[in-house]
Amino acid sequence: MNNNVLITSKMVKMCEPQLAELYNIHRLYEQADPGMFLAKNGDLFTAIAGADVSEKMMEQMPNLKMISSFGVGYDSIDIGAAKQRGIYVTNTPNVLTNAMAEITIGLMIALSRNLVAADKFIRTGKWQQGNFPMQSELTGKTIGIVGLGRIGKEIALRAQAMRMRVLYCGRTQQIGQPYAYFSDVRELAQKSDWLIVMTTGGEATSHLINADVIKALGPKGYLVNMARGSVVDQDALIEALTNGELAGAALDVFTDEPHVPDALLAMDNVVLSPHQGSATHQTRAAMGALVVANLQAFFTGEPLLTRVV
Ligand code: 8YV
Q1: Is the pTM of this model over 0.85?
Q2: Residue 237: CB partners within 8 Å, gap ≥ 6?
């Protein structure tokens, strides 16, 4: 087995020096024509570090045995195709949980107190003419978490520190969780002041948060999407915000990143964040270290640390 590793995503830059010490690395993201590169050289590679791996790419890499993915979400990898071909896939759970939960609460506070507009208010000299309008707070409000996984649970703990009541929804009720469970996301939205989307991406959750769910959250409700742009119907969200059917939104992810619709850019009741949930020095370093550790385990025949399939 050779030690050629293909790097499919720029994000992996974080741990490229370590990878370069251990393996013979090639950067797909630097190729002018990645498809052509793989057609010519695909059979060289035993392993991938990074995300965005289609079935077509797996076809072009007949010797591929391992994908060490950078990120907890693996919706950009065709898991079914990997499974079928006996290709291992690993991800980077746990190490980003705190960073994700932290920024979620940060975005919620920024949205409820309109911090972005408040900052602009001072910078543009408006404070001299009067006080900034009063805003709302998190205390005493109900938060509905869509997807009570590792990150969802950490958000729940921090929300309780904000004196909020926690509800959740997911595929199944989780035994031992102290929060009220809803099997129906619409019903959860109806009971919540804040709806936090922290579920997995992919087809199964595509537009789970649709116009009906947004309407159920209502004109006093706030939506926070920390998961994937695909989970929320972005057009329906824009329509609801435009018509006053929703109080506001905080978005770390979008339908077509890095493109954000002009309508959202123009709204004061929306806080925008450039898919940076895990983007702190300490967390990205830990994610990179886990990508390397999984590859090392694979190449030395040890059990993989965080295996998906
Ligand atoms: C990364 C993420 O920015 O872990 C995830 O699923 O969304 C982020 O932490 C992304 O995966 C980078 O590829």
Answers
A1: yes
A2: 209, 214, 223, 246, 249
